[in-house]
């Protein structure tokens, strides 16, 4: 899926992939058997799998970015010198 960020907002496949990734990782715990089967069925389509993999990669990358309050400002760096 090589589309621009604006394209992904209106892409139903991307939106569904993002919803699955959020559902799996946003504190809801593991999927139940019915949801797991539904996801497996959805992922059988190669375009869905690609969108899901990209959404999962995005989730991982966003998790590695520290919150803004954890990044020192230039004022704090200047004061430390």
Explain how this protein is built:
The protein has 81 residues and is mostly helical. The protein has a domain at 25-61. The chain has helices spanning 5-10, 12-25, 33-43, 46-64, 74-80. Helix 2 (12-25) packs across helix 4. The longest helix has 19 residues, at 46-64. The protein is elongated and about 50 Å long. The chain starts with a helix and ends with a helix. The mean pLDDT is 81.
Count of helices? 5
Shape: elongated
- The termini sit apart by 46 Å
Radius of gyration: 18 Å
Quote the beta fraction: under 5%
H-E string? HHHHH
Mean pLDDT: 81
Q: How many strand elements? A: 0
- What structural class do you assign from the helix and strand content? mainly alpha
The proportion of residues forming helix, as a percent range, comes to over 70%
The low-pLDDT segments are none
